[in-house]
Amino acid sequence: MQFGIFTVGDVTPDPTTGRTPTEHERIKAMTTIAKQAEDVGLDVFATGEHHNPPFVPSSPTTMLGYLAAQTEKIILSTSTTLITTNDPVKIAEDYAMLQHLADGRVDLMMGRGNMAPVYPWFGQDIRQGIPLALEHYRLLRRLWDEDVVDWQGQFRTPLQGFTSTPRPLDGIPPFVWHGSIRSPEIAEIAAFHGDGFFANNIFWPKEHYIALINLYRERYEHYGHGRADQAIVGLGGQVFMRRNAKDAVDEFRPYFDNAPVYGHGPSLEDFTDQTPLTVGTPEQVIEKTLTFADFFGDYQRQLFLVDHAGLPLKTVLEQLDLLGGEVVPVLRKEFAARRPAGVPDNPPTHASMKADREPVDAARQ
């Protein structure tokens, strides 16, 4: 099973000091966090994509390309690649280039984006969000799968005899996840293509995500990709840890109360009771995370949010030390022991997809 972290890249004042990091400081902190994630033995670092304050990661492939040169093992991914407001031609080219630079250590998560002002900045209409996502993704798949593409659709100019360059590494496109907070249509497109489905698992009670994941699993089996329990599922999560549970709650409370997304809303106690947020000891994080499979079924990727809401870099690095040193080793062992035979323990990687393809290529020769 893969474990990692994802960042939304917010630039938020530290409520305990009142200091706001500069954009430069925040960007450099994110790269430090990614390198530390590899150092402590995590499998994945994923960055969001945002084009509005207070967020800075407007160019995920630039950051991930830099990290490809700074790391050796960790999978470089996105927690959102905006399939609606990005041109699918540019997505095809950018992520194929990143694949080559990272020697295949790349996958990505498609998302619609739910911030309405962003759409007109890129010449699109949020009311067309679902049709845009569906059309753009169909074109993206063709650009990766076919050397020469003739195409005409509703939302961009036609293509005639177009070849996207560079071609995917070894002729194998990056593995794609589809991320959703609330849209069943996104679960459907993930299932249709046999792609992964990632449930944000941050803002809503578990029942909300159970419905989306179950729909994806049912449709994955319907389209003939395998049994429902073999579908490739990823989950988000959110943690803050200290050795003593009370210390964790007391330290995290001002950050929670002033967070840009959910601050000034439900109390910390209510939020931790109703959502996957865990604030406490490493043992409490292990205990709560292990319940995720009880609700959602066996899954392949778990990403944690640890660096938001103005938390200082030093604090985030301490969280990573606890994740890599105490939490993830236990989770790996426990999830492996519980996983039924025949259920994938990891999502596809470039190496695994290449290995699966080699016997087919040999048979054709």
From TrEMBL:
It comes from the Bacteria. This is LLM class flavin-dependent oxidoreductase. Residues 339-365 are annotated as: Disordered. It comes from Rhodococcus opacus (Nocardia opaca). GO terms for molecular function: monooxygenase activity; oxidoreductase activity, acting on paired donors, with incorporation or reduction of molecular oxygen. One of its GO terms (cellular component) is cytosol. Keywords: Monooxygenase, Oxidoreductase. Transmembrane segments: none annotated. Residues 353-365 have a biased composition (Basic and acidic residues). Residues 1-295 form the Luciferase-like domain. Pfam families: Bac_luciferase. The keyword Zinc-finger does not apply. Its EC number is 1.-.-.-.
